[in-house]
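Model the whole thing, not chain by chain.
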Amino acid sequence: MTETIKDSVKAFIIENFLFGDTSYELADTASLIENDIIDSTGVLELVAFIEDRFGIAMADADIVPANLDSLARISAFIAARSAVPVSA
Amino acid sequence: MCGFGGYFGSVPDGKALLEKMTVAIAHRGPDEQGVFTAPQAGLGHVRLSIVGLGDGQQPMSDASGELTIAFNGEIFNYVELRDELRAKGRRFRTSSDTEVILHLYDQMGEDCVSRLNGDFAFALWDNRRRRMLLARDRMGVRPLFYTMRAGTLYFASEVKALLQVPGISAEIDPIALDQIFTLWAPIAPRTPFKDIFELEPASLVVADERGVATRSYWSLEFADRDAPPRHVNEGKAAEELRTLLTDATRIRMRADVPVGSYLSGGLDSSIVSALAAGMAPQGLRTFSVTFDSAEHDESAFQNEMAVALGTDHRAVACRAGDIAKVFPDVVRYAERPVLRTAPAPLYQLSGLVRDTGLKVVLTGEGADEVFAGYDIFKESRVRRFCGRQPGSRIRPHLFRKLYPYLPGLKQQSPEYLAAFFGAGNDPLDDPLFSHRPRLKGTAATKMFFSGDLRARLAGYDAADELVSRLPEAFGRWHPLHQAQFLESRFLLPGYILSSQGDRMAMAHGVEGRFPFLDHRLVEFAAGLPPEMKLKGLVEKHILREATKDLLPPSIGKRTKQPYRAPDSHSFSGRGEFDYVRTAMGEEAIAAGGLFNAKAVTKLYEKCRARPASGFRDNAAFVGILSTQLWLQTFTGTSIRTAEAA
């Protein structure tokens, strides 16, 4: 891959939830909920992005903060499901 | 009802100024206009004739000519007060409630307000003492704004009248904007207009040669949580409540013109309509809004209630595009940015009432604050419940039960629900515990603020200021009462009664009356133990008990569905209006200087592409658009408007 999973997810978050604010220091482990980056609808947008972009079908049981509440967790979840290394 | 403007101090051509001020608020009083001037004082008035049709002209002076009043609102107990004053030898020249205030003031001075049961704002010139008294009702139903310029006090029912004063121009107050984008409303006395203030509910201004002093004459108070409850017998409490509510409605039917009623299909307006229908031998007219989106529409319940009561019922349809069509007018009349479109259908509704020939309507507003009807009260209880066992997977399911009408929540796992609602995270002793998730979610909209605005705000925190404004006893109250106080004292006058109430109704010269905000009822409800209001997760329990014979079970047992209207997607799709595209465009955003133009462009595109955006995106869209319209309307910042595309 020319783009890492993390880069791709990060670009989506910046574009879709931070509306292009690249000055926001989005730490890999920062909680997206506690930092008010996503709300309840945002989670559904994130799930739709992961399914569309990475071809992963997410079950209800997958949609939990443990998998999706930070850049690091999302990347690890996608990597585990798609068997693609987080760092290409 | 009506509107007024005036001054205390030196004004070169007072009469001409007063005439300009009254023209600016002519919509509040289309029936008559009048001005009064004295050395150092002036009052202007526009009248909506409801009581004393032929003899209630204003400004009104007493027989001595020493006291003159300009009054907006109604004194509902004026009949009893007049009888009482007559018994003491007072002679009345008119049949109006306005004259009652003059007599009462003559007898009691400024303490006269404690005897008034009503929705009022007035300015009273006392020529003997050379002083101007301004007063506002307890719950903040009627508005009153004021400002000082060059040693003169100017005041008016709406800010647009003050903007007629030479030297006064509109400039946005960044702190107020921060408060709106955090709390939904400015914290009075602050308004969105820099250096223009709002008289707080239940307050007085006394202006004389010594200066201008403000004081409160009433406050909403609850008993300490450990104090023995004032009411222990639920049956007796329900009986007393019914008596009070019936009387509150009865005295709000007093008018020399027909009185109608709003009917939303919910519990509160149905109760008011049912009581009113029983008191209107000539029949009651009811009015409602319908939506073409099933998510917002309540017409089935409205029709059921109208049929049950036999009212002459009319509805205004709020169709796709209607909100966008009236939104610039909504901002012009509301005089403030808003984060939701909910005022727009109410603006349409008051237009329908006026077209039907009525100018007075009863509404069910206030019941949710007084009897703990809002979801936020239940949510707070569930958050405390979850907070006791933060690891529980079962407890957070309750959040889904609270918001069955929010599709986004249905699909969330318990872990996410707990995280969104801060269950287990927020300290239980936080004074704003009940409102933290809302404040946090709303404040997220401030990510669109420009760098310049952020710099001007310099780290200001609206929530901290809110905490600083709480009464000393607040910490001793039951958590439900704390939450009720926050809703009743700040959001009710700051948003519900103003942006959705007075200003939208008065835009069409319609007076709303609020039986649930009768201060006797408010004080009674404040004295009820929390469990009589919120029983388990059933809201307004005691109110349901007190009125269960009035309504069909389908209405009486209905779970609260908050009044909402379609938000950002009202402004996109077919019928998109040019003004929206222009106001949200980079050029206009940059000209306004308040928001980040690039981020707003992305938000605009996102909301257009996916209408089902969540709370934050919707609130940000509506908040930014209304702020841009506010700038255009009041400061002349160039945002070109055009007809529908």
